[in-house]
Design brief:
heterodimer, A: mainly beta, 7-stranded mixed beta sheet, 4-stranded antiparallel beta sheet, about 55% strand, B: 6-stranded mixed beta sheet
Chain lengths: ~110, ~110
């Protein structure tokens, strides 16, 4: 299993540009989510999905869109990039089995908006 | 109001000593889950341990254990016999409800001293 993969690893955008951060998992997990990590802020939830066709907003959804057409993929779209969106973005997927639950993270995408 | 509170921004601990990292949470749900993650300086997020709200026994994974005190709404991480490689950022997180969003605390930076 490749686990959770994210592309690109690093991206530079100009203000106003749009882009899509890709996230894929090959573990057949129903739950997937996107976080951003800023210094001193921990991880903040942007959007999450509990299955194909179902998405919901997290703590900081403004400026981002998501869709979940398949179980495997959960792309994050920046509609019009702003310098405040400079951050490290993590995608994660999780599953529960009985009383155990595990969440796996991708390696992250470092985004710089100029 | 913060849902997950980690009151120790930083800690210094001597190698081989036990470490307790504090985490308190706030929820009115009966069903929830608590997670701990490690983030070394390389940046990846590593899942450490999970505790479900209905689990009566504290979760353990190797040197990690979760001290779950439901009435106090605390879920402290205990690392036994700390090692230099334990130096990292540690995050507590909570999922409210079933297959609902997982949100994070701001983290505690742990330094293990030789």
């Amino acid at each position: 299993n490749a686990g959770v993969t994210q592309t690109p690893k690093f991206q530079v955008l100009k203000t106003g540009q749009s882009m899509t951060l890709q996230c894929a998992q090959d573990m057949n997990h129903e739950y997937m989510s996107w976080y951003r990590q800023d210094p001193g802020m921990g991880l903040r939830l942007i959007h999450y999905s509990v299955g194909a066709g179902i998405t919901d907003q997290g703590e900081v959804p403004n400026g981002y869109n998501v869709s979940r057409s398949t179980t495997e993929d959960f792309p994050l779209r920046l509609l019009s990039a702003a310098p405040s969106q400079t951050s490290v973005y993590f995608c994660a997927s999780s599953y529960s089995a009985g009383t155990q639950e595990t969440q796996y993270f991708g390696p992250g995408t470092r985004l710089l908006v100029l | 109001a913060q849902k997950i509170t980690q009151t120790q921004p930083g800690m210094f601990v001597q190698e081989k000593e036990a470490v307790t990292l504090d985490c308190t949470y706030d929820t009115s749900d009966q069903s929830y889950g608590l997670f701990w993650y490690k983030q070394p300086s390389s940046g990846e997020m590593i899942f450490l341990i999970y505790q479900g709200s209905y689990d009566e026994q504290n979760a353990t994974e190797g040197r990690y254990s979760l001290n779950f005190q439901k009435a106090r709404k605390s879920a402290n991480l205990v690392i036994s016999a700390s090692q230099l490689g334990d130096s990292a950022m540690y995050f507590c997180a909570m999922r409210e409800g079933i297959l609902d969003k997982i949100i994070f605390g701001k983290g505690t930076r742990l330094h293990i001293l030789p």
